Structure formats: structure tokens, C-alpha cells
Amino acid sequence: MAEDKRNQGTETDPTESDLDLETEAEDEETLLEERGRGTDQERLFVAGIGASAGGLEALGELVKHVPLDSIAFVVVQHLAPHHESFLTKLLSRTSKVQVETVTDGTVVEPNHVYVLPPNNDLGILHGVLRLIPPSGGDRPHLPIDYFFRSLAQDQGSSAIGIILSGTGTDGTLGLRAIKEAGGISFVQTPASAKYDGMPRSALASGFADFCKTPKDIGEELTRIAHQPRALALPMTPARAPQIQEQIARLFLLVRSTFGNDLSRYKASTVERRIERRMTLNRIGKLDEYVRFVQSNSAELQALYRDMLITVTNFFRDQAPFEMLKTRILPQVLDKKDGRAPIRVWVPACATGEEAYSIAICLVEFLGEQASEKRIQIFGTDVDEESIRHARRGVYPLNIELDVSPERLSRFFLKRDSEYQVSRRIRDMVVFSKQNLLRDAPFSRMDLVSCRNLLIYLQPSSQKKVLSILHYALLPSGYLMLGTSETVGDAPDLFSLVDRKTRIYSKKHVANVSTLDEILAVPGDQDRIQPGSNTRPIVSLQALADRKILEMYGPPGVLVNENLDILHFRGHTGPYVNPSPGAASFNILKLARPELHIELRRNLQEALASDKRVSAEVKFYENGKPNMLTLDIVPMQEPETKTRCLLVSFLKQEPPEEDVPPESESTEPEEHTHGAGKRVHELERELLITKEYLQSTIEDKESANEELKSANEELQSSNEELQSTNEELETSREEMQSTNEELTTVNEELQNRMTELSQSNDDLHNVLVGLDSPVIIVGMDLRIRRFTGSAERLLNLLPADVGRSISFLDAFVGGDMASRARQVIDTLSLHEEEVLCRNQRWYLLRISPYKTLDHTIRGAVASLVDIDLRKRAAALTRNVGDYADKFLGAIRHPLVMLDEKLRIVWANHSYYERYQLVPEETVGHIFPSPNDPTWKGARLRERLEHTLESGETLRDFQVAMQSSGANDGMIRLGASRVPVATDSTLLLVSIEETAAP
């Protein structure tokens, strides 16, 4: 209940809450900016060292060469949870600095190496090391990633991450966090590592600044620790313009190459990233670095990549996502009808983790209804490479730190050493490149999640972004910001919904700016000034001005041209007080009755003359007369040029009593003088009242005339609108009819597309399954399509589509174009046996290509392989002539077989003995598998042996069976017959003898 009351309080009084949130955000931002600041002597680097299998040797080599000051080292290694570690003793033998085991509350100091004890995770807060029991459960234990993330959040640009030998991917996401915070990352060269799993994973991620051996890493750390900082504060007044000029040159180079204006970023962000690049390139002066960037496109690309905001991970800060599921999404769904989609926009989405996290929350919230609802999530970012990464949806195994096992199994697919977002979630999210400050935004959004972007932008750009997001949201939409961000620059656009999670709802604004007006507002009005001293001075000056105004400034209100109050200043209760009735901010309805006449007259005069107007007014407070000076000053809003009036109430000393009480000592002259003064004042008030009444009468008459004129115009307009309405009604009916027709046509087209797709699939499968080469040509005799068999036989390529069919003449022989043209002209089938270039016989068949409506659109040419049949026929003919000539005198049955034991010739005795004709004999297998005479005789094996070896078969006897009794014996002989071909023939003789 207490929490609910606090939430209600923040909603009813958003100004105070927003101021508190803004103060918190400024404090946190100042802390982040000052982290790592100060003089070179004061700056302390904290280096986290991650190692696993084989890391002891690399650690020993590294601690031999570490610098002796300015850097504290924290070693995090994969250790067995219940075994004592001797790492501290082992490193102490070779280290030049002090080595000690971490205890809870250890304050990091330079010239020390701190070693993590077993069965603990390690975090750092304000330079103090904290031991944390591991979470346990099904989640993997990744102590290096855990500490590196904590180190990046706590130390900012003073954080250093080092990955040494080890297996797995632990430390990869930690290096990313350190690099995003402006720190420096090192990776041991895989060749020098005993186990290169962790180094290779870190290098593949692209988050490593240096890849060196442990010895070289130590030497590089020494150089970094002693390198002076070109932009270190304090900044002298004479030096500041020079630094600003050099930074402006870098901005110009980046904008010319990539189109993104970095001058909208905050000075602290820009300076940290530039100093980081200077440190990595061993450059100590800013002007030298500018010249280096001008001559090195790769460094310009690296600087731009470092400037981009890529701080993201899955379910960053769990509380906002729980708030989405429990409070925000139910309200969004209640305001949706069944057909309206749920629309979400994630600007500055980086590599997509935030967008996918919201998609997962939506699916979990909707449950079984998720498949029925239309969900549209848009992720945009200025970096094309990040967008490509987001579209792939592939992330390292280390996301197990942020994603629960249940979500991993439900929404991710594990592939080798990576996780890929499931297709269902990826289909919900559309990623595109967009510059939020320059390109047109999305619209009609239910939710916009813009987290950790505003904190990096200048105030003017923050205000522009908030205006863009306000435009993008539906009237019932919600805005989700980062934990260090507020809508302090635009309190009139959003109302606070939840203080902890920084969720806001869209406010209704009377004067809504158009999109062109919003995008036209410059986002870089505040020029970047180097150094962080600028902001505290401005903040203190503003605070001092506010205090002076509160103490000595008169109360007043700021009103617009409609006399509606926009802002209250000071205590205006004695002069402006709400009256009973409908709520209104009109100053004439809120002001005291005694002030109405003078206030109205002076406001009108100030608006008409656009000059300052003052007047004295008498009013009574608690029965006592008081004097008040109304001071009205015209003003103009600098950005929108909107006119407004500042009304100040200056209370004067109370006047003396007009008529003193009568007494015996009062002289008649004094009484007369007092009465005359009173009469003079009454006459003056009467004159003012008459003037006010006269002006009111004139205003009323003028208003009546305007109303009459407006009434006549309205009547005329009403007639025109009635006519227009009738025309629109007719047009609406016509459009409805046309729409129905279009709907019908669309359905027909969809059906046609379905049929066409099915036909294409059928045609594709038919063409792929055909063994015969088929070529389709158009009316111009150019190839349109061919089968895979044609591609293999004729050596066709996809590029041959469109070539004339004449280029097949060399293979087929003859004029293919004339043959095809004849078929098209005569609509007749052309068949021809041709001996092709590969010395095989084909049946060339060319037929007309007809559409379903019998229109000729070309020809279809096919080649059917008839080489076997052609040669078999020739062989049969030749063998038959030979056998009839030389074997005709033999009386017992003879047959001649080919290589597959098929009959190619038989003599007259064979046909006569077995009562066969040539049509039933030639081409059939001998001996027939279905003939019981040869069953079990193994004749086929003997004949195949004779064909292979050439050995003559003699007196092979087989018993003839009839009705289960032996009727006689068959004696067979076989020998190979030499013929003038590549084939081998077998002559078989059959003799029958009676049973003994």
C-alpha cells in the first residue's frame, strides 16, 4: 500500500518527481563522467585478468612485467569450488608487486595483485572488492564475465580487461562491457596460449584492442600507465578553444564519411572515447591524433565505432521487463480491439538484445493468444553492422548469464558455441538503419523503449528526441527509459508511471507540433565544450538564480496569447485563486475579482502594443486595503516564436486610511480634505469603470457583428458542406464498390499465384526427374529452359538461357534452327534418328510448344537415347545373316546369345522343336527363369562362366521332366563366337537323347 501511495503521489505531482529523478540522473552521470578523471598522478587503473586452463604460466609471465604504480590487478580464474588454491603463493614467487588473496571489503590499491579465492564470484563497488557466493542452479559459472561487467560499471574508462589462456567463452561479454565503458581490452595471442578457447572467442567478438603475448601485455600496460592524457582536466581558458577546434575537425571528418553528427553527444562521452583511441595509438597530443585520423581511414572507422552507443544485453535490468508484463502490457491489451496490432519501437537497439527481450516478454504475457495477435516490433540503429548482427540473431554462450534456462530452451536454438534466437521470435522483429535525430520516426506505437541513449546526448538533443518519441506514440502509449534517464527536458510531454523502472505515459498536448517542425528543430544548439567544469558552473549559476528569484523576485504567472497560465512563479495565492466550477487555467477566471478590470485592460494593451504595461490596483485582504502594481511584460519563446506575457504582482505599502475616525480634536478643514480625497478616488474609479464598461459594450457590439457575419458564413459553408457530403457519399459508395472488386480480384490473384506456384513446383520436379535431355525454345528460337540431363549432356550453363538453338548444330549435326522453325510453321511433329558427336544414336523429337489456350509459343526439342536398341538391331541383323549362311545345315536346335544371355538368333530346328516363333524368342533370356526344365541345373552360371573365360562348355546334361518322370536327357554345348563388333556372342547347341 505504501508503494502504491508513493506511485500515486508521483503521478499527481509530476514536476517534483521529475526534478528528483533528474537530480538522481545528473548525480549518477557526473559520477560516471568523473570516474577515471583527475590528474595523471591521481588516476588509478584497475585491470581484471581472466584465466582458466593453462593460465598459470601466462599469469606468471605477466606479473613479471607489470608496471610498479598506477595499476591494481585482480586475477579471476576458474577454480574448483572445494579445493584450496595455491595461486597466490605461486604468483608471489615471480611477481614484482605484492600478491594477496581477496577478502570481502578489500580496497584496491596500486602496486597490488588480488587473487579471487575459490567458490566465489567477485564484484567491485566504488573501488572496494566484494565477495559474492555463486548463484548455483543450472546456470553456468562465469566468474570472469561477472567481474568484468562489475569492473566496467564501477571504473568506467579506468577499467582494463585481460584474457589469458583458457577454454570456453568466459570473458567475451565482459570485454564488451569494458570497451563500451571506454576501457581497454587485451587478449593473449592464441599461439602463445596453452589453451586458446578463451582468447579465440574474445578475438572473434571484435572487442579486443590488443592481441599480445603476456610479456608484451605487461610492457603495453606500463606505457599506458605513464602516458599523459591530452584532454585531462583542469582545462585552462586559453587551451579550451584549441581543444574544441580539434574536436570539431574530428566531428567534420566523421560526418563527411559516415553522415552521423557526433557534436550532439555530450562532451564527457566524446572526450573519453577520443582519449581511448589516442592511448591505443600511443599519441599524446590531440592535434597529432587529428592528423593521424586524416591520413588513416581505418582509424577513422575505429573512432566512429567507439563513439557508437552499443550498451545492451538481454533483459538488462529485470525490473522494467517485469513491470511490462504485470502492469503495462495488460493496459495496452485492454485498449486494443481484436484486429489492431501491438506495435513496439526500440530506437538505438544496437545488436538487438533489447528488441528480442521485449518480444519474448510479449510472447510470455500473451501465452496461447500470441499466435492470434499481430505483433510488430521495430528495432533501429544508426550502425549498419549492428543491424546486420541483430538480424542474424546469433549470440555467444555467455548470454546464459542474462537469460534463464527456461527462456534459453524455449526461445533459443543452441548451435555449437552459439545461441540463435528462434525463428518465431525473429519473425516478430524488423530491424532497419535509422538516425533518430534526422530520419522520420515510426508512428502509432504502443510502447517505445529508448534506454541508455539520452544520457549520452546534449540537453537540446534530448529534448528533440523526447519530442520525436512523443510524436511516435499513440495517445495511450508508454515510454521506457534507462535507469539513469528522465524526461526532465520535456515534462509537458510525459507523465511518470513508475519511478523505479523509469516508465512514462504520453501526455495530451494541446498544441501538437508537426513532424516537419520536430525534425527541423536543431539538435546541436549546445556546442561541446571540452572538460567537465562547464556543467557544474552552469548548474550552480542556475541554482543561484533560482534562489535569488525565490527570495527577492515578485510572484507572477506566465500566460499565452489565450490568457491561459503556462507557469507559476513564487507564491501567487493572494492574487490568483481557483474559483468554484469547471477547472480552468485562464488568468481572468483565477484572478481576484478586484483585479479583473485592470488586469483585462492591461493584458489587452500589452498584447496590442507589444510593450511593457504597468498599473496600480487597490484590493482588500482580510478587510484591510492593499495596493498592488500589475507589471505585464510581453515575451517570445525563442524556438517556436510563440508570444506570451509575464504578469508580475508587486505588492506596495498599504495606503493610509481615507477617512480617519472622528474625534473632538479633528478640525473641519482636515475632515473636508479627507472627504475630498476620497471623492477624487471614487471619481477616478468611476471613470475607469465607465471606460471599462464602454470598452465592454464596444467589444460586445463588435462581437455581435462578427457573430452575425460568422453565422452567415456558417450557413453558406453548411450548404457547401451538405453538397460536398452528398458527393462524398456517392464517392464512398463508388469506392466501396471498387474496393469490393479489388478484394475479389486480389483473391483471384492469390489463387492464381497459388496455382502458379504449384505448377512451377510440378514443372521443376518434372524437369529434374526427366532422364532425357529436353530443351524449350521460344518463337525467336532462343533457349528458355532445359532439363538437368540436357545440361550434363550438352554442357549447358545457366548463362546459355537466351542463346540461339543453332549452337547445338555441332553436337546434333544439321540445322537445328531450320528444323524448329519448320515445326513451328507447320505445327507438325519432327522425329529423326541422329548419330551425335559422342558417337551415340539419339531420336531427335521436335514438337510445337502450345499454351493451354492452344497458342504456339515456341518448340520443345528432346533427345531419346536409342543407341542400345540401334546397335542391338544391327547386331541381330548381322548375326542372323552369318548364322543362316554357315549354320543352316545343322539339324539339332541352336541359339546364339549376347552378353546378357538374351537370344539374338535361333535356327529353324529350335523353333520347330519348341514350337516357338521369332517374335517370342529373340530378345528373351535363355534359359527362361520360368521353364521348369532348367530349374536347379545351374545352366545360367555355366553359360556366364563360358562368356567370361572363353572356356568351351561340352556335354552339359540336364534331365527332361514331364509329369514328375524323367523322359530323357538334354546335352548342351556352348562356345564363344567371334564377331566384328565390341560385343561377345555365345553359340549354344541342344541335343536330346532318350531315357535309358
From TrEMBL:
CheB-type methylesterase domain sequence ranges: 46-222
Top-level taxon of origin: Bacteria
GO cellular component entries: cytoplasm
GO terms under biological process: chemotaxis; methylation
Active site: S52, H78, D170
Enzyme Commission numbers on file: 2.1.1.80
Region feature Disordered, mapped onto this chain: 1-37, 652-679, 699-742
Biased composition (Low complexity): 712-723
UniProt keyword terms in alphabetical order: Chemotaxis, Hydrolase, Methyltransferase, S-adenosyl-L-methionine, Transferase
Name of the molecule in the record: protein-glutamate O-methyltransferase
